[in-house]
């Protein structure tokens, strides 16, 4: 009897922690969606945003499952505990599949982002003075301290260059401590005054940092899920039919 009470208490405590973890996952998913949001023009539907969608959905579902587990533990219901175990297993399987797909499609995603970024820089930037593309590219280059897609020489082949022959790169490529009126001029050009790293690499590094956080969260949740399934099985087997 004492063993059942101990397992019941542990399972209830676990599910409360699990519910809090679900809320945390939901919050992290929202953060992942909002923080890189200003770069969505380049990320688009490439797949980089998929983890945030999965996390938000998983976080909400985990909160529901945690509540379900608490009810099953309190009422000692084999039906609820069985449903709880099944839900945990489904979440665990979904996380594993998402991780595998993310690894398999990573190269294709990077290629899609590269093509979109090069198109924006070489074809669309500078066509219209107040275009959204101009703002997106400038924000990207300023925040990530980068220039061009692969590097700053991408601007030599752009439509922007055709109408800005006196400028080597846009002003958003200039370093903060340089004179932004002259640092991009062809006549006074010195690449030490601008950011030379390509935005593709900078954007990839930026997203990878977010994915690293998501990876840690996913592994932590997976560990909690395994413990939950073990506790649920123990309590399920201890309850008399």
TrEMBL record:
InterPro entries cross-referenced by the UniProt entry: Tetraspanin/Peripherin, Tetraspanin_animals, Tetraspanin_CS, Tetraspanin_EC2_sf
Spans traversing the lipid bilayer: 12-32, 52-74, 81-105, 211-237
Topological relation to the membrane, as annotated: Multi-pass membrane protein
Location of this chain's protein in the cell: Membrane
Keyword set, alphabetical order: Membrane, Transmembrane, Transmembrane helix
Keyword Membrane (UniProt): yes
Record's GO cellular component terms: plasma membrane
Domain of life: Eukaryota
Location (main, coarse): membrane
Family statement drawn from the similarity comment of this UniProt entry: Belongs to the tetraspanin (TM4SF) family.
PANTHER family on file: TETRASPANIN (PTHR19282), TETRASPANIN FAMILY-RELATED (PTHR19282:SF534)
Protein name: Tetraspanin
Organism: Pocillopora damicornis (Cauliflower coral)
Taxonomic placement: Eukaryota, Metazoa, Cnidaria, Anthozoa, Hexacorallia
